[in-house]
Specification:
With about 325 residues, the chain is of the alpha/beta class. The chain has a single domain, classed as TIM Barrel. The protein is built from eleven helices and twelve strands. The chain has an eight-stranded parallel β-barrel, surrounded by five helices. Strands 7-8 form a two-stranded parallel sheet. A two-stranded antiparallel sheet has the order 10-11. Helix 4 links the parallel strand 3 and strand 4. Helix 4 crosses helix 5 and helix 5 packs across helix 6. The longest helix is centred in the N-terminal third of the chain and has 21 residues. The radius of gyration is 19 Å and the shape is globular.
Length: about 325
């Protein structure tokens, strides 16, 4: 087993396909990670086991012994805080309450949440509901848990493809309960989602002409335009609230609006641009870089992608 205790950056991956969380920690270390992300249970069903059954001494001791920290949790894919159906919002609330309690129980690095979709109703019609539900959720959960909004790719009315929406949520929730300043809420930046939503990672805007691509791709790209991720995050004052980065390449062209992850270097995000973003001086070394790529064998992040990521950040 290889240890990377001298790493100054937090490099991790989403770990699945193991029988328990202690085994997930060991798998992460074998891949070369010193951080990781997990699901607390199946990401596609609402049911969860009691915390006492999954937050075991073996898991916590293995994590501490091998130096894997932070452990980030990813919320269910079913969550939709912007739904117009009260039942869906209630289920989402209960699910996220559990995830935040899990995060607190493991002393984790936060719960990454796809806030949901307004289903074409428009952000302005879902805004107040989303903000109030998040504020209520934070009020009902442990003080050492953290809610992390993930930026979206732009498909199906998903909240957060426009980083202004992320900034507005953080600002309004802070006004309600000072939750940003006390570390209870932040956000997670996904490189694939940003690329899909029209935020470029490098210094130079990409050419929006995609020869041979579909007319829909071209319309999406030109509609979204090209915005600098670095400049927008700076303008919106989002650097301090950035708690996690999902490092993923993209199978689709810039501005496509599609969320399809690819292995690093095998997709359509220029690796020189990825390197520029991941080494920005504004990016704190404590922010974990988490891979969610398909892997060379299509079974999830692997050691090869971890090595590719390390090559981008010059450890």
């Amino acid at each position: 087993m290889v240890f990377y205790t001298n790493m100054t950056r937090k490099v991790g991956a989403h770990i699945g396909g193991v029988e328990n969380f202690a085994a997930a920690v060991e798998k992460a270390v074998k891949m070369g990670c010193n951080a990781m992300q997990i699901f607390s249970g199946s990401p596609r069903i609402w049911q969860r086991r009691t915390l006492e059954l999954i937050v075991t001494p073996e898991f916590l001791q293995t994590r501490d012994r091998l130096g894997v920290n932070p452990v980030v949790t990813h919320a269910l894919y079913l969550v939709n805080l912007a739904s117009d159906k009260a039942e869906n919002v209630e289920k989402s609330f209960k699910s996220l309450k559990y995830e935040l309690e899990f995060d607190a129980a493991i002393g984790g690095g936060g719960v990454v949440v796809h806030v949901g979709s307004h289903q074409g109703r428009g952000w302005e019609n879902a805004r107040d509901q989303v903000i109030q539900v998040i504020a209520d959720l934070l009020k009902a959960t442990p003080a050492n848990s953290c809610f992390l909004i993930e930026n979206a790719a732009g498909q199906n009315g998903k909240v957060g493809d426009d980083l202004k929406e992320v900034a507005e949520i953080l600002e309004r929730v802070e006004q309600i309960g000072k939750y940003v300043s006390n570390g209870r809420i932040g956000w997670c930046f996904d490189t694939c989602h940003a690329h899909a939503a029209g935020y470029y990672l490098g210094e130079v805007a990409p050419d929006l002409t995609f020869t041979g691509k579909s007319e829909k791709d071209m319309k999406n790209a030109h509609r979204r335009g090209a915005l600098s991720a670095r400049a927008m995050i700076t303008e919106l004052g989002l650097w301090d609230a950035l708690k996690c980065i999902h490092v993923n390449d993209s199978k689709d062209p810039f501005g496509s609006g599609r969320d399809r992850h690819q292995n690093l270097g095998d997709g359509m995000i220029p690796q020189a641009d990825m390197k520029v973003f991941l080494n920005l001086p504004q990016l704190r070394e404590t922010v974990p870089l988490i891979l969610e790529v398909p892997g060379l064998d299509e079974e999830g992040p692997d050691a090869e992608n971890v090595q590719r990521l390390k090559g981008l950040i010059a450890l």
